[in-house]
Design goal:
about 325 residues, alpha/beta, 6-stranded mixed β-sheet, 5-stranded mixed β-sheet, about 40% helix, globular
């Protein structure tokens, strides 16, 4: 996997080795570590997890192995992290659901992300992308809203898991438009994309990376991006805001967290390695090709983003627009 990781990074990992921090033999890391992936292989979250694992392996000279713990919208992975020792040898990289949203969209969550996790950094962010299958009854967002009004309860929009930004973004569109939308959670992006390409579900709202090649090949249609401005990798796809939803802005992010009480110096080291990597031009190009932008903010800034995410979702739950599971 290490060899595969260097190929994915396009050589940037070797640059990190050359500039790597010198660590005494009796200090962290003195053995291999684990990076938990909260979703199945192949989706955007898992891709970023593997990139981060390769960066840490290259930077610190110890292998950081990816462990997939998919299921329950990231709650299985979150529980695994919460039980881990806070020694820097186990971290998690995922979308915001297990790090934030699950606190308010899951009834019996086995952990509290604001208590049981140590924020490290938001690695990257992107808009979500709404797409339609080739056989969908509406082929634009205004057409979809009109169809939903004429056919109450018949619009199904898939997302990669309950509480993911795809789920939340669709719920806000339904709220603003005053239409009923059925939210169909999948176990990650790959099975959702498979059903969309096969016409088994008509609409999806998800991170863009897996969908971009199929939009370009006209196998599926891009209906909207959820950011305030159009995405550079899909300039022909309009924003939600410019299609009648003023000020609509729902971006998604992918972050790294550790167990609670992780030593500050280890948090700083991991954050520094990720920041160094995201500052590289080759990394920015790689992330851009996936529809992503680098962030690498501070642990305190990530903590504020987690709080903001939770508080933005809570009113949707209280209004019954997002049903806790």
């Amino acid at each position: 996997m290490k060899r595969r990781g260097f190929m994915v990074l396009g050589g940037t990992a070797s640059l990190l080795v050359a500039s790597g921090t010198s660590w005494a033999a009796d200090k962290w890391p003195s053995k291999s570590g684990v990076v938990i992936s909260a979703y199945p292989p192949g989706g955007t979250s898992d891709i970023i997890t593997r990139l981060v694992a390769d960066v840490l392996s290259a930077k610190f000279g110890q292998q950081f192995v990816v462990e997939n713990h998919a299921g329950a919208a990231g709650a299985l992975a979150g529980g695994r992290l919460a039980r881990a020792a806070p020694d820097g040898y186990t971290i998690m990289v995922s979308g915001s659901a297990p790090i934030a949203a699950n606190k308010v969209v899951q009834k019996n969550l086995a952990y509290d992300p604001q208590v049981d996790f140590t924020p490290i950094t938001i690695v990257a962010e992107s808009p979500a992308l709404m797409t339609a299958s080739a056989n969908a009854p509406a082929q634009s967002l205004p057409e979809l809203i009109a169809y939903a009004k004429e056919n109450p309860g018949k619009v199904n929009i898939g997302n990669p898991g309950a509480g993911t930004k795809g789920h939340i973004a669709a719920a806000i569109i339904g709220q603003m438009a005053g239409v009923e939308i059925n939210h169909i959670p999948y176990k990650g992006s790959p099975p959702l994309l498979t059903d969309l390409l096969g016409g088994h579900i008509h609409y999806a709202l998800d991170a863009p990376s897996n969908y971009l090649p199929h939009v370009r090949d006209a196998k599926i249609r891009g209906l909207a991006v959820t950011s305030l401005t159009r995405a550079s990798e899909m300039p022909d796809v309009p924003t939600v805001a410019e299609q009648g939803f003023k000020d609509y802005n729902q971006t998604l992010w992918f972050g790294a967290v550790g167990p609670k009480d992780m030593p500050a110096e280890i948090v700083e080291a991991i954050h520094g390695a990720i920041k160094e990597w995201t500052d590289m031009p080759a990394t920015k190009e790689k992330l851009k090709s996936l529809g992503l932008s680098p962030v690498a903010n501070t642990p305190d800034e990530m903590r504020a983003s987690i709080q903001q995410e939770i508080e933005s979702i809570r009113p949707l739950v209280e209004a019954g627009l997002v049903q806790p599971t």
